[in-house]
């Protein structure tokens, strides 16, 4: 099993300390992922910037959750699935949506299903989608902006999911009640 160091504010490189203090202020704790990322101030900054940009995209809270969790579940991220379940709860997203995503079940609406399917196709096909895929996405009410914003969400989740796989990041105490194990696709 691989592991990487989970930094504290005290043990982190000097260039990461201010960012970690901001994380504690925002979350009331230091998320383990941020502690791992702190070993490289650049990746910590990149991750937090991508998170902020994606959170401020044109997607509503349900759609953000669909994109994040679709990627997390597909990548089988033991850390991000529970973390984003907790985050979805804080965002007042219907718990049924979170459970559907965690268990690879159908989405509660056709529009969210299309977003889920499109996100999966982008991840699985490394960005190669067909004209038919795009047309289905547009027919559901999404636009070119959202195509690009899904790619932004994937960019953020690649950093966290891949890091957590290598680091074997322990799930934060606040999210342990949402522990998750991958199921067969």
Task: Give the structure's gist in a few sentences.
The chain has 9 helices and no strands. The protein is mainly alpha-helical and 185 residues long.
Walk me through the structure.
With 185 residues, the chain is mainly alpha-helical. The protein folds into two domains: 14-54, no CATH class; 59-178, AhpD-like (Up-down Bundle), CATH 1.20.1290. It has helices spanning 14-27, 32-37, 41-55, 61-74, 80-90, 95-102, 110-124, 131-139, 144-167. Helix 3 (41-55) packs antiparallel against helix 9 (144-167), helix 4 (61-74) packs antiparallel against helix 5 (80-90) and helix 5 (80-90) packs antiparallel against helix 6.
CATH topology of the largest domain: AhpD-like
Low-pLDDT stretches are none
What do we call the CATH homologous superfamily of the largest domain? AhpD-like
CATH class identity of the largest domain? Mainly Alpha
Order of helices and strands: HHHHHHHHH
Helix content: 55-70%
* Average pLDDT reading: 96
Topology:
Elements: H1 14-27, H2 32-37, H3 41-55, H4 61-74, H5 80-90, H6 95-102, H7 110-124, H8 131-139, H9 144-167
Quick tags:
63% helix, mainly alpha, 185 residues, single chain, 0% strand
């Amino acid at each position: 099993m691989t592991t990487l160091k989970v930094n504290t504010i005290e043990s982190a490189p000097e260039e990461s300390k201010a960012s970690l203090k901001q994380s504690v202020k925002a979350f009331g704790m230091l998320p383990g992922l941020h502690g791992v990322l702190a070993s490289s101030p650049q990746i910590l900054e990149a991750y937090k910037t991508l998170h902020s940009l994606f959170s401020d995209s044109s997607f509503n809270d349900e759609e953000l959750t669909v994109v994040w969790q679709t990627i997390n579940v597909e990548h089988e991220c033991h850390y991000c699935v529970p973390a984003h379940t907790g985050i979805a709860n804080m965002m007042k997203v219907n718990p049924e949506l979170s459970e559907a995503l965690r268990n690879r079940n159908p989405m509660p609406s056709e529009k969210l299903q299309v977003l889920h399917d499109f996100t999966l196709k982008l991840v699985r096909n490394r960005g190669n989608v067909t004209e038919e895929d795009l047309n289905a996405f547009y027919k559901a009410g999404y636009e070119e902006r959202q195509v690009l914003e899904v790619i932004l969400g994937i960019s953020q989740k690649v950093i966290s999911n891949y890091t957590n796989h290598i680091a074997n990041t322990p799930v934060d105490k606040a999210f342990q009640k949402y522990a998750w194990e991958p199921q067969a696709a």
